[in-house]
Amino acid sequence: MAVESRTAKRRAGRVRQGIAIVGAGNWGSSLAAGVVAAEIPLLEVVVRKASRRRVGGLATVAWEKAKLDAETLWICVPDGEIAAVAERIAQRRGDLLGQLAIHSSGALTVEALEAARRAGANVAGIAPVFSFPTRERLPLAGVMFAVESPAGAGRKPAALVRKLGGRSIRVSSESKVLYHAAATMASPLLVSALEAAVRTAELAGLSARDAEAVVRVLATATLNNFFEKGAHRSFSGAFARGDAGTVELHLRGLLGHPTLHGVHLALARHAVGSLPVRNGPELVRVLDSFASKRRVRD
């Protein structure tokens, strides 16, 4: 036991306090700035190929020169690359005892970090509940983070979120993919739904400017109502009134535009099944008739 203890201390001595970020894309850039703002030591920002671009005040470091000896290794690469990056870190370091390996995928579990775990690291998932569409550095104070923290990581992931000024919500490995599906509906697919609405308005002959203005007015009011009054008290229009004929006109008008028709039909089905509609059976009949037409055409 004494030999094991001495070995553990020796290994821990090779770990520097602070964070190393692997990947300097949209999220990695904001994370680096957030780490610096929180006065947490940012030891290195590792990228495939170093450039003159500075991230978090540091020059980026190419893989070949990376030390990867930070107490926290935060992997900020696309989901499909996480496992390979974890494997590469494990191969470079040999053992990762005393280190915490984190990835920021909202969908993948910590299984993607298995190579790092086998090398001795504790592992966790910390995904920002926020949108980072560009490399503009956005402040992390007040941002929510979905935290997947297996037993070995203890309270470190949540404590790290607090240091960054964020608020953590716990997600289990088993249900994480559903959390991410919800987050995707609330952000990128919400953008998709709004863009579909603008496209449909343009099909009606509105200019791009007017189409966007119509969608902006309705969407802004609806979002405000949704979060202030709830889904049921912010639901209106043809479905709430039970105007099956109007719904049929909408779907008939979109028949020549299969993708927009599919979006409209899917959202309509969800509305009839989840929100306070009148004339429900007739609305279902209309939706079913158009679903049948789509199946025949497909």
What do these coordinates show?
The protein has 2 domains: 2-172, Rossmann fold (3-Layer(aba) Sandwich), CATH 3.40.50; 186-297, no CATH class. It is elongated, with a radius of gyration of 25 Å. It has 298 residues and is α/β, with parallel strands linked by helices. It has an 8-stranded mixed β-sheet with strand order 5-2-1-6-7-8-9-10, with helices on both faces. Strand 9, helix 5 and strand 10 (167-170) form a beta-alpha-beta unit. The termini are far apart. Residues 1-13 have low confidence and may be disordered. It has 12 helices and 10 strands. Helix content is 49%, strand content 15%.
Brief characterization of the structure:
With 298 residues, this protein is of the alpha/beta class. Helix content is 49%, strand content 15%. The strands form 2 sheets. The chain has an 8-stranded mixed β-sheet with strand order 5-2-1-6-7-8-9-10, with helices on both faces.
The CATH fourth-level homologous superfamily of the largest domain: NAD(P)-binding Rossmann-like Domain
The backbone outline, from C-alpha atoms, is: elongated
Quote the distance from N terminus to C terminus: 68 Å
Fraction of residues in H or I helices: 40-55%
**Unreliable spans:** 1-13
CATH class of the largest domain: Alpha Beta
Strand content: 15-25%
Protein structure class: alpha/beta
Quantity of strands, as a count = 10
Largest sheet, strands/sense/barrel: 8 strands, mixed
Q: Describe the strand arrangement of the main beta sheet, using strand numbers.
A: 5-2-1-6-7-8-9-10
